[in-house]
Structures are given as C-alpha cells and as structure tokens.
Amino acid sequence: MTDLLMQGVGMTSLRTRERLIQRLRDQGVTNLRVLDVMLNTPRHIFLDEALSHRAYEDTALPIGHGQTISQPYIVARMTEVLLGAAGGNLQKVLEVGTGSGYQTSVLAQLVPHVYSVERIKPLQDKARDRLRQIGLRNVQMRHADGGFGWPEAGPYDGIISTAAPQAIPDELLKQLAPNGVLVIPVGGREQHLHLVIREDESDHFVTRILEPVKFVPFLSGTSR
User: What is the pLDDT of residue 89?
Assistant: First the structure.
C-alpha cells in the first residue's frame, strides 16, 4: 500500500472501518486479500464532502449524473468472485463503468493492470484525480461506451461491470481471454449477478447466476 493510501485511511477511525469489514464478513465475504484492501481504502475520498460522513456505511450513495458508488458488500462480493473464479491468473482486468473510482481502486490494489471505461466524462475526470491522489498508477482510463469494452487493450483475464445491461453484451464476451472471467449484473427491474467463464480457447461460455442485486442501468452512448 502506498504512503498516500495510508494517509487517506488515517483520516478516518479505524474502529469505523473495522465495523464495516465485520459487516462484510457477516454477509459471507471471506477473501482475506479483498477484506484487507477494503479496510485500508479511504472510501470517503470517492464521495463529495457532503456525503463523506456516510462513507463507511454498507450502502450505495449518489455521486451525481444519476450514478452511485456501489455498496461496499457488492464491491467486495464481485471482487471476491472475480479473484476466486480466475484462480490466481488475473493479470489484466477491464472495468466497465469507472463511476466514482472506488471499485477501480480496490481492483488496482489486487491486479497488476486495470483498464477502466466510463461514458460520463465528469465522473471519469474526478475518478482519475482521486486515484492519483492516493498514488495508484496501474490504471488506464478511456472515455467510451462501456458496452463495447476496450477491445484494443484486450483480451482480459477478467471483466467486471458496475452497471446492469438487459443481456450480456457479446462484445464483452469476445474480449475475454481463454479461461477469462466476467462478473456482471444483468436485468431490468429484477437483476441478478452473473458469473461467466470462457472455457479454454473455445467460444463456449459457462454461466452461473449468483444472487439478486440492484445496479444502475447499463446505458449506451458517450456523454460529455
């Protein structure tokens, strides 16, 4: 962990952060690496100052432009699923929907190379500044429609989406490396978290439906 990360974490109560981690444990999150990263990541810097006092509640919070910072449990759960399904083979991960940058920061502490796509430019700009503030330098960002992913930088060992499409985009499946893993919420009013694994070098994908979730909808088109 960088010194800047430690300084950011030091601004909040250790007891407050430990209570959050205990809630994640109580909800079934067991990956110690994920729990340690989330304990030591300053979630408050990814929120506007007016909401920073609620940063360590286990809840989603608004970040503007109709978007939210994900509930810590969901961040932990999706990250744990991604790491577990990849079996330690994660070198390069694509994140669809940078948002506040909080999920990005968690991934960047667990994976050597993170590529993150965001369609709302003001959110991307804020996220980039926050990641620099805490000294995370292994993230590349692109302002684009997340439904198309980032094919030029692929294939990816893992892809994680922080918004829910009605159906899994074929473009994302095409960007998975052999044995690559996609974690994505799918649905409209009713959504479920899906785990998709590409089998070897074939175009055969194994899909598991994990649990009900609630995400902002997956939108097409870029926004300035």
Answer: 83
Indicate the residue type of 140: Q
Report the pLDDT value the prediction gives residue 139, as an integer from 0 to 100: 98
Sign of CA dihedral 131, 120, 144, 91: positive
Task: Supply the DSSP symbol for 223.
Answer: B
The predicted model scores a pTM of 0.91
End-to-end Cα separation, the chain, in angstroms: 33
Residue whose C-alpha is closest to residue 215's, from 80, 77, 81: 77
Beta bridge partners of 165: none
H/E stretch holding 126: helix 121-133
Exposed (0-12), middle (13-18) or buried (19+): which is 3, by Cβ within 10 Å? exposed
CA distance linking residue 177 with residue 166, whole number of Å: 23
Contact (Cβ atoms closer than 8 angstroms) between residue 111 and residue 85? no
Any idea which residue has 């067991």 for tokens? 30
pLDDT tens per residue across span 32-66: 999 999 999 999 999 999 999 999 999 999 999 99
CA distance 8 to 11: 6
For the beta carbon of residue 46, count every other beta carbon within 10 angstroms: 25
Taking only the tens place, the pLDDT of each residue in 169-209 is: 999 999 999 999 999 999 999 999 999 999 987 789 999 99
**Which residues does the annotation mark as catalytic?**
70
